[in-house]
Design brief:
This protein is an all-alpha fold and about 110 residues long. The protein folds into 2 domains: about 45 residues, no CATH class; about 60 residues. Helices cover about 75% and strands about 0% of the residues. It has 4 helices and no strands. The longest helix is centred in the middle third of the chain and has 23 residues.
Length: about 110
């Protein structure tokens, strides 16, 4: 069984991202207005429609990985790449609604 290890660049990137997130949270939680805005953002993220889209995207990836593994096209060595790709895929799903609202794009 393959192990998923991070190289030094990936470890440094994760530490920088974690530090930036912690710093941003400290700055955001300093005032009452910022705390209210952060709570509103969390509530909007927990909207049932958004949760359905997140769940559908994650389910799609899980089915694709399972099917590819059954066909010997995917194994544990690809887990890190799959996890890195996943936020990009979810972002692309949300970008579809922006494309559909642009002029000249025909939808059913």
């Amino acid at each position: 069984m393959a192990t998923m290890t991070l190289n030094h660049r990936e470890t440094a990137s994760l530490l920088l991202i974690a530090g930036a997130v912690c710093g941003a949270l400290i700055l955001l939680l300093r005032t009452e207005n910022s705390r209210r805005q952060l709570l509103a953002a969390v509530r909007s993220t927990l909207n049932p429609t958004l949760l359905f889209v997140f769940g559908a995207a994650l389910s799609y990836v899980a089915i694709e990985v399972w099917l590819a593994a059954r066909l010997s096209l995917w194994d544990e060595r690809l887990a890190k790449g799959t996890l890195i790709w996943l936020p990009t895929a979810i972002g692309m799903v949300f970008g579809l609604s922006k494309v559909a609202s642009e002029p000249g794009v025909r939808t059913r």
